Amino acid sequence: MTAQSNGGPIVSLEQVQVAFPVYHGGSRSLKKRVLFRGSAGKIARDADEHVVVEALRDVSFSLGAGDRVALIGANGAGKTTLLRTIAGIYEPLRGQVVTRGRISPMFDINLGIDGDLSGFDNIRLRALLLGLTPAEIERRLPEIVEFTELGDYLEMPVRTYSAGMILRLSFAVATCFEPDILLMDEWILAGDAHFMGRAEMRVQNFVERARLMVLASHNLELCRRWCTKGIWLDRGSVRDFGPINQVIERYSDFVSATQVPGH
Amino acid sequence: MLERQQPSQFSLAIADFSAAVGLWPLWTKLGWNDILYRYRRSILGPLWSTVNVAITVIALGLVYSQILNQPVAVLMPYACAGIIVWGFISSVMLEAGSLFSSSESYIKQVKLPFWLYVCRFIFSKIVLFAHDLPIYLAVLLYFRIWPGSVALYAIPGFLLLAINGAFAGLAIGMASARFRDIPRIIASLVQVLFLFTPIIWMPDLLGSRQYLAQGNPVFHLIEIVRAPMLGVMPSVLTIWVTLAITAFNVLATTFFFLRFRSRIAYWV
Fold it and tell me: Which residue of chain B comes nearest to A185, CA vs CA?
């Protein structure tokens, strides 16, 4: 982890463009494609010109050690897509994404959760999914168990857990190995107040050790508390990037302006 | 760092493959869970697959020895080895279609090498194949057949088959993620292949039309494992055809993977 001490960017995006092809029931089937290929002319061209949704357009920014970044914006602004692009899941059509260090994505608390396995087995499975080695997992297991506060419940099949309990388990695993980059989608809001307090402390600790967090959320209050910088996404482009208070202010002004008729 | 050239598709594909191999604790666990999941809460568990195949072998062996007028002691071991090997091939062909589309939740939530899903898939298929081997041993014991040391040639033969399974599985999985009709096409193909290929009937029955068996690549893929299991060396033709299929399969799939690897996440 010496790489961060030189202060260079940990995450850097350069004119990133991500677009999703939209496959209708028909265009996704081979039959239609083969048939259209066979019949020359206009239809063939139409069949090849897929409908494409531009999810990210010309997105450029770079984030360094210690940054806690909030992604804000309306539904469909591209927040989740941006998180997944940083995580390396979507490779951009154009532009470049450079990241340094281990990434811990927390987009779906149910990822890799097998309801019939015990809490312990699920911790091990999830940690393997996040790239930990079996030895590392056994070493960190006591700490994870401690953070979940699930105690004897961990012997039970996860099927019997509540959503909040699964969240605690997932969060404990996702943050146990001090990832360099922590990416979170808004589901984090599902925890109870006690858990949220502990989670906030853990994130704070974690970011103090010169690491990076990106959080996508609609909860502006949470963003203000947890984050230092903000990125306002609007229809796939970065509308504003700067200190969290400034970004939230501009975003709120924009939202209230568009809500008042006549403006 | 930023000035660095974007890595080539080739090095990305190689990195994908080697990262997946390194993650073997993960894919063996996931593959094993896949098997357990299918038989969860049944008393026999994965042994059900053994029981199913055993019933098929006994029933087909008895019936076809009558239909084809061949001694049970010859046809049953032949059909047994054939059905077990065919079971591996057909399950790869039938289930590779959902290789990526069934892992959508993983692919969209966490960055893992795509080869990891292929390894998980082929691992669970190999484990299920191993579950069927006791039937083969039981048939050998019952009919007092001793294949001799030639049987060891079945191991490299199966290795070739498994490599083909992995690459074909990747190609089918990618194509099916993009075109959802492909699994259906393959499903009907598998049914025809079972009837068309000498699996429960012997190629001798074709008389002068041997080319119908020898010209069928699936026949050779089965023979490379089945012949040594029954104590016979695979023919030179079988070995060459299998090697040629493997080379083609690896090259074509690698090309396909180089070209479309980065699109898989968008397709699923």
Answer: B109
